[in-house]
Amino acid sequence: MKTLLTAMLAGAALFVQAQTPPDPSKEGPYPVGVTTTVIVDSTRTDRFTEKPRTLVTEIWYPATDEARNMPKNRFHDFFPGGITPEVAAVIQASYHLSADELDKIFWNNSVRDAPVRAGRFPLVIFGHGNGGSRQQNTFWCDYLASHGYIVVSPDHTGNSRHAIIDGQLIRYQSKERAHSTEDRPKDMSKLLDEMILWDKGKSDDKQAKRFAGHIDTAHSAVSGMSLGSYCAVQAADADTRFAAMVGMAAAPSKHTNLTIPSLYFLGRKDGTIGQIGNMMIKNVYEAHSGPSMLLELINGGHYSFTDMFKLSHSFGDGIGEAFTPMETTYAIVNSYSTAFLGYFLKGQKAYGKYLEGNPWPNELAIQRKGF
């Protein structure tokens, strides 16, 4: 009788645990792996390279427990082919620091090429900002992966700070910006197509085999920062396979998929998109008829929603003494993103209570509707 009662209590505890998702304000229960791959869209010709559209892509994912004791990924590791003098010069010009110096200050929680954890995990596709890079939001990608997501982030060729394709360094091309707003939504849909093939074990990519059966592409979100956010909204309009959208610090003037669950962030002190850009975000939110949230960092700027905190303490436009500090900013962005995606991609309705609250009333203003 005692054994039966013990078993019943243990089963009840497991049931409660299954119904109670992890605290969104803390890192998730999984160690995180990161890897680099290259995705080629042979159906499109890149207007700059005049070759098939090619995307150097970073993937963050839940890793096995052995990754807890493995060395963390370094800044250097985002350049798997090594850092040539030409690449070193671009890094120096971009960050005003060498790759060696960046290795000393850059931090993240990922392990390079760690084994993939058993299970199926929703997919999140992320687009970087204009002139940004696939690794510009490691604070966010790491965090989501620790909560059980697979996050895929490409260098949008020609619009990224640097992309290395077949050994060739492709720098940011200012004249490609207009083209990029057309290319990026297609890039995001292509990555979803590719991850579907990876999950089904139908890709020839050397990385794909270990992800087979692990990517829950039926529950996927599209996201981005700055121009990446602008184009994520467009991708959600064009491709209804995306089940949710998260946008940081930009939105287009028009939006047609008004029912997709959407989470918008903006910084009230944004000096890059300015008040006009912030008003565009607000207008898109107001036009939305489906479940949506608008989170405004009262003392946030444009680069509050990036890794720039890690690289420069006085960068400006979100980074510095006049703005919300890194710890608070990252806690806000990470926790609400985790709760929002958990609610809509994983069906973790217990997160509804978190989404209704605001632990930072002096730093954050929130609007919600459609829940």
Structure description:
With 371 residues, the protein is α/β, with parallel strands linked by helices. It has a single domain (26-369), classed as Rossmann fold (3-Layer(aba) Sandwich), CATH 3.40.50.1820. It is 33% helix and 22% strand. The chain is built from 10 helices and 12 strands. Strands 3-1-2-5-4-8-9-10-11-12 form a 10-stranded mixed beta sheet, with helices on both faces. Strands 6-7 form a two-stranded antiparallel ribbon. Strand 4, helix 4 and strand 5 form a beta-alpha-beta unit. The chain is globular, with a radius of gyration of 20 Å. Mean pLDDT is 93; it is low at 4-18.
* Widest β-sheet, arrangement of strands: 3-1-2-5-4-8-9-10-11-12
Q: What characteristic shape results from the CA principal axes?
A: globular
Question: Gap between N and C termini, in Å?
Answer: 46 Å
Tell me the fraction of residues in β-strands, as a range: 15-25%
Pick out the low-confidence regions: 4-18
CATH fold-type name:
Rossmann fold
The level 1 CATH classification is Alpha Beta
Structural class computed from helices and strand pairing: alpha/beta
Average residue-wise pLDDT = 93
Domain unit count:
1
Report the CATH architecture. 3-Layer(aba) Sandwich
The total count of strands amounts to 12
Radius of gyration: 20 Å
How many H/I helical runs? 10
